[in-house]
Write a structure and sequence with these properties.
Elements lengths: L1 E4 L6 E5 L5 E3 L23 H6 L13 H12 L3 H4 E7 L9 E7 L6 E8 L4 E9 L7 H8 L22 E4 L14 H5 L11 H5 L10 H9 L15 E10 L9 E13 L3 E12 L5 E12 L6 H8 L1
Antiparallel strand pairs: 1-2, 2-3, 3-5, 4-7, 4-9, 5-6, 6-7, 8-10, 9-12, 10-11, 11-12
Length: 324
């Protein structure tokens, strides 16, 4: 067993050889920051009462919060290029609540040097997510690429009946993220507040450390790229019947020509690329293109599978029967 700690991260990594050679991060307790999230005047799955009614043990920690624990592993494997062309592609398996201890790991893919398998689990062994970490510009197949390829078409959607594959967002969205910028009702906190509790501190995220980074300015953390690309999502006006309770089921953040910088303006364009359903949920898959506003250069894409719980929609079975 070997241990290493980069000057860039306040994260001790452990190199283990059994059962497979892999890099393991420390145990962490992510902080819940969405208890006050407001979705059209309603509470979300991150609210204690709403979550318990939906069958969870408590207010769920937002999935991309866990991406921060994967970032030092990606940097260990791919170096600073990870912050420019790295990709985290994750299938969320079980929700966490505040107080849960979780640990991330990664192991090099034997089929190529530019991809690694990764995952996260709780203390009792419950899997939290499975993922791939990869490096571009030509990213290999990711966790969600493979999942999309296996996806079966939805039989009869009810909540998402008005959504169509290929539909675009209603407008191009202009977004940015400053250190002290409150990110709205969906994300009721600032970047500064997130950095105070983020599981893995990184010098590149701060004003002082960012100035000394290879790019000369602070970068947006991977998990906050999710916030940057989602806080304006209502502007897309995709037709989802309400009220419902939803959650992130799968998510990918893929850098193509990054990093993304604190304070810079970006243009977002959204497109529905798939629709699916399971026994409990209906799902939309939306890919978002992220362009630098001043040059319109494509710098990143995200893919988000948002699932809405069938049981949270009144008269779901009656409406489904009527549509059939």
């Amino acid at each position: 067993m070997n241990r290493s700690q980069s000057d860039l991260f306040d994260t001790e990594l452990t190199l283990v050889s059994e059962p497979e050679p892999r890099i393991v991060g420390p145990w962490r307790k992510p902080v819940q920051m969405l208890a006050e999230q407001d979705i059209g005047g309603r509470a979300s799955i991150h609210d204690e009462e709403t979550a318990r009614k939906a069958g969870f043990t408590g207010g769920a920690i937002e999935g991309p919060t866990h991406f921060s624990q994967l970032v030092p592993l990606g940097h260990e494997l791919f170096g600073d290029a990870w912050h420019e062309r790295g990709c985290i592609s994750a299938h969320y398996q079980n929700a966490c609540v505040e107080g849960d201890e979780v640990q991330a790991w990664a192991e090099q893919d034997p089929d190529g040097d530019n991809r690694a398998r990764a995952g996260m689990q709780k203390r009792d062994g419950t899997p939290v997510l499975s993922a791939t970490l990869s490096i571009g510009p030509d990213h290999p197949e990711t966790e969600l690429d493979a999942l999309l390829a296996r996806l079966r078409p939805a039989d009869q959607l009810v909540i998402l009946r008005d959504m169509k594959i290929g539909a675009k967002g209603a407008e191009v969205e202009r977004v940015q993220m400053g250190f002290d910028q409150h990110m709205g009702k969906l994300y009721p906190f600032t970047l500064e507040e997130k950095l105070a509790v983020i599981t893995e501190s990184c010098q590149y995220y701060t004003k002082e450390g960012g100035a000394a980074s290879p790019w000369g300015r602070p970068i947006v953390p991977f998990e906050m790229i999710s916030v940057l690309t989602q806080y304006s999502s209502a502007q897309a006006r995709f037709p989802v019947r309400q009220p419902v309770v939803g959650l992130f089921a799968n998510q990918e953040i893929r850098l193509l020509d990054g990093p993304l910088f604190v304070g810079d303006e970006y243009l977002l364009e959204r497109e529905v690329v798939a629709l699916s359903e399971s026994r409990r949920a209906e799902s939309s898959w939306v890919r978002t293109s992220v362009r630098e506003a001043k040059s319109e250069r494509l710098v990143a894409t995200t893919l988000l599978n948002s699932a809405v719980l069938k049981a949270s929609y009144a008269n779901y079975e009656e409406e489904r029967a009527g549509l059939a």
